[in-house]
Write a structure and sequence with these properties.
Elements (H helix, E strand, L loop, with lengths): L7 E3 L2 E3 L3 E3 L8 H7 L6 E3 L3 E2 L2 H4 L2 H7 L8 E6 L3 H13 L4 E6 L4 H4 L11 H14 L4 E6 L9 H11 L3 E5 L13 H10 L4 E4 L5 H11 L3 E4 L8 H10 L10 H19 L1 H15 L7 H9 L3 H22 L1
Parallel strand pairs: 3-4, 3-11, 4-6, 5-6, 6-7, 7-8, 8-9, 9-10, 10-11
Antiparallel strand pairs: 1-2
The structure holds flavin mononucleotide.
The site of flavin mononucleotide (FMN) has 22 residues, from loops.
């Protein structure tokens, strides 16, 4: 079947499907991105990395930006408010294997905005422009930018900032269609995404609240965006992305796997995290993932509660296996 929309082009990268895994701090580490990408993400983005922290090069920071040969293409996201520091950080992440450098003008978290980073940059559009120009000039790969609509509803600067981005050589813009002050309240307003698409020549990636394959593809067509980005709804449900890929490739959409099969994949995710990060780091990180894989599974509340308190990987995996066994025996009794 022929694709129903064009590939997303960023510099020399032809990205198919035009579906991007949203950067999510504390979630989209290397292991998680590698596990989820095959479901149908054309592009993955790292967790955001502080440009200031890169000056000190801690082991954890370096681990976050080391991309050599793992995914292709991969975009490394940076945040900060100082153009020179952002430029220096961009050179480091490029050196460490980033195919694309993404600038964060979207994060509303207090620890970020108190140092004028993330969405706080949107309060000073001139500063945004200086940061983008410095980063574009610093690296020999495409630079992209991700932002919110503005700091508040009364100050929607997204078109102004995106036009400045285009003028200084940024090669794609992602819009999460909420203001910084909204955090995650209310709904993402896709009318703004359509407006941005009309205003720019460079690719626009639409983001916010996509949690259904048909709605996602309809939104893509209705707004004309070049790609969509998905975050929260894919956690514990990467099959959503395969469904979107099916629709974009003109196929019938595959069904979501059974709860038992979803939990089998959860066990693969768990074991891979333990292998790559070690048990001490993987167990607390996997608690939130397991809770998400359990979403909508009948009778899972008790298990979710127990996983939160279980200190070892073996015990957690045994609990998940127990749930799979129960689901399968219930299904065979019902058959
Ligand atoms: C836990 C979490 C961490 C996030 N971290 C980042 C980040 O590091 N960089 C960024 O640009 N956005 C970050 N975001 C925002 C997402 O990339 C995305 O814009 C937002 O969740 C809206 O998309 P969604 O409705 O598909 O989740 C984060 C979101 C969540 C839920």
């Amino acid at each position: 079947m022929p694709p129903t929309v064009p590939a997303l082009t960023i510099g020399a990268h032809e990205i198919w499907p035009p579906v991007v895994l949203a950067p999510m701090s504390g979630v989209t580490n290397r292991t998680m991105r590698a596990l989820y990408k095959p479901f149908g993400f054309g592009l993955t983005v790292t967790e955001f990395v502080s440009s200031n922290a890169l000056k000190y090069g801690s082991k954890r920071t370096m681990e976050m930006i080391d991309q050599h040969g793992i995914e292709s293409p991969v975009s490394t996201q940076l945040w900060g408010d100082d153009p020179a520091t952002m430029a220096a950080a961009a050179r480091v992440v490029r050196e460490c294997g980033a195919d694309i450098v993404d600038i964060n003008f979207g994060c509303p978290a207090p620890k970020v905005v108190k140092t004028n980073g993330g969405s706080a940059c949107l309060r000073d559009v001139q500063r945004c422009e200086e940061i983008m120009r410095a980063v574009v000039d610093a690296v020999d790969c495409p630079v992209t930018m991700k932002m919110r609509l503005g700091w508040t509803e009364s100050d929607l600067v997204y078109i102004d900032v995106a036009k400045r981005a285009q003028a200084v050589g940024v090669q794609a813009v992602t819009l999460h269609a909420r203001t910084a002050r909204q955090f995650y309240r209310g709904e993402a307003n896709w009318d703004h995404i359509a407006r941005l698409k009309d205003a720019l020549d460079i690719p626009v990636i639409g983001n916010g609240d996509l949690d259904d394959a048909r709605v996602a593809v309809d939104r893509m067509r209705a707004t004309g965006v070049d790609a969509i980005m998905l975050g929260r709804a894919t956690l514990g449900n990467p099959w959503l992305v395969s469904q979107i890929r099916d629709l974009l490739e003109g196929r019938e959409m595959q069904a979501t796997p059974t709860p038992a099969d979803r939990l089998r994949f959860c066990m693969v995710h768990y074991r891979t995290m333990v292998d790559e990060l070690g048990e001490a780091r993987a167990v607390p990180q996997m608690r939130k993932h397991v809770a998400l894989y359990l979403k909508g599974i009948p009778g899972a509340a008790v298990l979710r509660e127990r996983i939160m308190r279980t200190p070892t990987a073996d015990e957690s995996l045994a609990l998940i296996q127990g749930c799979i066994d129960r689901l399968e025996s219930d299904a065979s009794l019902a058959a």
